[in-house]
């Protein structure tokens, strides 16, 4: 029988984890002689207090939705795809190729083309570790990590040697032409009378990310393929019994996962930078792991967790800008949240399960 | 302390897991030098009770007395100190250690191993003489048979000076001959004054060896009786709470055309060891072929190859059409398309996804069925749930709730879900592995009737079971497997457990 009600699992545990992380962060801020209450206030007003703040929060959240969904899909097939970072880098390459070398008449077509190639590149990058796992039994955690480094090196080479415009000192591609610039939230919301900040990078990719959440939900819970992925994820021997091919599911789940991670590039490369720079992913691939863990691998959970981490990113940047709290401490706070919501899940879960059991016994 | 105080006495032991009352106010007295049986269905609370006695769980209420003295048993160290030894159903031995090393493990005298080993060797020698428990102390565990491994477990307990031995389902992995040997050892231990608690669900064993027997049902002790004053029928009734049919009523088979024909089937496991070494068999429509054998002699691999779960070599014809045994077309989906259904040996690891709802499990393996699809993309979960509801009612699955997770059904009801799913497909050939393992008596009766009913509809059935009783009562023909080969075929009416037991142990009789 279930140890505790579903709402406790979905709402209470992440909430408690978050409060613990916040409390510990407050202690750390106190320890360096700053005021935690003021810090929180600054984070909230910086990230959520203006459309400018929201624009950044949602921009980061868009990245994390893609990478979080990528990790979540792989989780359902019981695979730990740590390679979101590398897959997103390759996705960036796909976006850059599409945007620079195809004369798009309109951004909508460019978005479709760029998304497709970004997903293909990301999927291809995930396909190699997936094949090694499925056929050779090489552990996917190890191979995807290694492929992050390879992706980084490949991108470095491509940017420096192949795609850098003549005479430029910067390891980055040329700027994308005007027709492929994606509309920002400012441009999208202006027609309906909402004056969204012009300077914020959140753009139409956010809608694509939300659509991806819905599609992943449909895929996992409503389709035959999703059924097979979940069955394989729960029991490999069971999958074998039911005639579900482990090789096939491993490959497909990782292709989808890599494709989602790759699609992140339409946000950061096409939507924000409008050119491909080194380290464009800024660790979003790794944040995706925390997002998926916190979101319980459910697309809706991923959506919420992505916004939370968007808030932490933007709020953290504000802290670094306006206080003497050093940048490194912001990373510490983010790490604490990841630690508590992701890695230390059981620390909260087990006492809570006991509590619910004893409550129930009291009633029985 | 008088000489007549019981070796173990439990008074009012209760233990709950959440809302489940696993043990309710249980009291037992076991006199020294006797064998006391505890019998009950799966989930009746036998294992919980013994776990409390061995210090794995703490009782919510109740007291334990050892030799008349109240004793707290907070952990297994305390249980050992109190003279209690436990032989688990699944042995707790280190495979690549020798017998001697396993006996000493956890009971070393100091930091250096050598003196402990020398002492253990001497004591093992004495025990061997005293109880006729002969085991070569220098054999590695993975090189000796299951029966021997069990002796090592007993020796481990005796080495720790146990006066009270608890054996949990000790004969599950033994051949009938090995079981007889075990009973002789237990007899001898009793004669030497040891107290033994035997946990089992096999009525025959209770009748054969115990002095007194306690029956458990749903966490309660329903009766404690002297074995001499009772019989199997009465015990079965006490276990289930109603009269049960221990034999399956079935009409003689009227076999039709050959459905399954297997020739020279060979199977290797993941390590490349040959597990099935050239098997021939045929199953005709309307008959049940039972494959008897001790677990681990290749019958699991046989089922798995036929079910499309692992590759093999040889010829397998289903309805006259050869089946692919490796590569393309050898998977479970192709098998189902060819008219085969499969109740696998291990419902928890194979037959069900324990985290799935009942309705999701009803589609398991048949998730491509057009009836379960809404369109090219999406599954029709509503239709699937309706189908689940109907199957649950027909097969009396309790509770009949499609939304319940498989894990939350009892073993018997989990198995009913699997059986319902497979039988309702009206297959030409049904593979059945251990259909009633871990299933309560009431459900066993039901599942057996369903299998016979499918046979009477003209399906061919290949039954693999390690329970001889089950093989004898269900099969129309019996084939005995040993070390990956068929030792011969018998008709149930013309054979008995002794002859089958010999075949199962690899002793080839004259072909009947």
TrEMBL record, chain A:
Transmembrane regions: 12-33, 53-75, 87-104, 110-128, 140-160, 199-220, 240-264, 302-323, 329-348
Membrane topology annotation: Multi-pass membrane protein
Major subcellular site: membrane
Keywords linked to the UniProt accession: Cell membrane, Membrane, Transmembrane, Transmembrane helix
GO molecular function terms noted in the UniProt entry: transmembrane transporter activity
One term under GO cellular component: plasma membrane
UniProt KW Transport keyword: no
Pfam family, one: BPD_transp_2
Keyword Membrane assigned: yes
Localization in the cell: Cell membrane
Name under which the protein is recorded: ABC transporter permease
Organism per entry: Antarcticimicrobium luteum
Automatic annotation (TrEMBL), chain B:
GO cellular component terms, semicolon-separated: plasma membrane
Membrane topology: Peripheral membrane protein
InterPro entries: AAA+_ATPase (IPR003593), ABC_carbohydrate_import_ATPase (IPR050107), ABC_transporter-like_ATP-bd (IPR003439), ABC_transporter-like_CS (IPR017871), P-loop_NTPase (IPR027417)
Record keywords: ATP-binding, Cell membrane, Membrane, Nucleotide-binding, Repeat, Sugar transport, Translocase, Transport
UniProt-listed Gene3D superfamilies: P-loop containing nucleotide triphosphate hydrolases
Main location: membrane
Any single Pfam family the record assigns to this protein: ABC_tran
Keyword Cell membrane: yes
MF annotations from Gene Ontology: ATP binding; ATP hydrolysis activity
Cellular localisation: Cell membrane
Every ABC transporter domain range: 8-243, 260-508
Keyword Repeat part of the UniProt annotation: yes
Protein family (similarity comment): Belongs to the ABC transporter superfamily.
Protein name in UniProt: ABC transporter ATP-binding protein
